[in-house]
Specification:
Blueprint: H1 3-15, H2 18-26, H3 28-32, H4 36-43, E1 50-54, H5 60-67, E2 71-76, H6 79-88, E3 93-96, E4 109-115, H7 124-134, E5 135-146, H8 153-165, H9 184-193, E6 197-204, E7 207-210, H10 213-223, H11 226-232, H12 236-251, E8 254-255, E9 258-262, E10 265-271
Parallel strand pairs: 1-2, 1-4, 2-3, 4-5
Antiparallel strand pairs: 5-10, 6-10, 7-9, 8-9
Helix pairs in contact: 2-10, 4-5, 8-12, 10-11, 10-12
Length: about 270
């Protein structure tokens, strides 16, 4: 099995869990919705547009596009996410599908959107090429992803904790750099390789607010796939040290009984030439 195939199978198995999909929806999903307005604005979504929400998850982006009067459809590789989206928004069509091989005709959509899905595909060049293919000339592709580690503290501290007290060498298939898509130079190069032009960026200051450090720990352990798998494969002693490190880091963001950890996102927009 190739590296890409191994990564795809690992992600598919993890996100195929109903409990993981629901935990993400109840934890990080509550954070990611904060940039949907910026995502739709970047793509210029308006009434009457045909819009595709790739890696739709629980369907928030497709629903927001629908609320603007667009004809929206969502696609996700996870049957669990598709079921959750259908339950949450029964009036919108959601289908299972691969971001790297979309089951739609060329030049079918006015806008293609992707909210935090790119870090979960094996080959981002294939995913962006597919977004380009299904867009009408003059259409726009916009995606959101977490900012680079120095800014996205809520996610970076997990990696910091594992580097300090554990190991990443736990037998998981290799995958793309989780933070690459939130770095403007990487994003622009990737999109221009696909044929896009007029690439622009908007940083959105999202915050993960919880009542206790344990809520964030539980969010990562129950509502993620790769981070959760790395944590679960640590030795008991190392895992205890990692969790203590995280409690101490998260505690620095306590104000009046609320822990507000920065997790900013980068919204990236690119246009398909006429």
């Amino acid at each position: 099995m190739s590296t890409a195939d191994a990564f795809r199978a690992f992600e598919y198995a993890g996100w195929g869990s109903d409990s993981v999909a629901l935990a993400y929806h109840r934890n990080l999903g509550e954070v990611t919705i904060g940039c949907i307005g910026d995502l739709l604005a970047a793509a210029g979504v308006q009434a009457g547009d045909r819009v595709l929400d790739v890696a739709c998850g629980a369907g928030y982006v497709a629903a927001a596009a629908r609320d603007r009067g667009a004809d929206a459809i969502g696609v996700d590789f996870s049957p669990a996410q598709v079921r959750l989206a259908q339950q949450t928004y029964p009036d919108i069509a959601f289908v299972e599908g691969d971001a790297e091989a979309l089951v739609f005709a060329a030049a079918e959509f006015d806008a293609v959107l992707n909210g935090f899905g790119l870090p979960h595909v094996p080959d981002p060049d294939k995913a962006t090429a597919e977004a380009y293919r299904v867009l009408k000339p003059g259409g726009a592709f916009a995606y959101a992803s977490w900012c680079e580690p120095a800014k996205c503290i809520g996610h970076a501290m997990i990696y910091d904790a594992i580097r300090a007290h554990g190991s990443f060498d736990v037998g998981l298939p290799a995958g793309p750099d989780f933070f690459s898509y939130g770095r403007p130079p990487f994003a622009e190069d990737m999109l221009r390789r696909a044929g896009f032009a007029s690439v622009s960026f908007t940083e959105v200051p999202l915050t993960w607010r919880v009542a206790s450090p344990e809520a964030i720990l539980e969010g990562f352990c129950g509502g993620t796939v790769r981070a959760a798998a790395v944590l679960k494969r640590q030795s008991p002693d190392d895992l205890a040290k990692i969790k203590q490190y995280l409690r101490e880091r998260i505690s620095q963001f306590e104000r009046n009984g609320v822990y507000a950890v920065p997790v900013p996102a980068l919204v990236v927009r690119a246009g398909k030439p006429d």
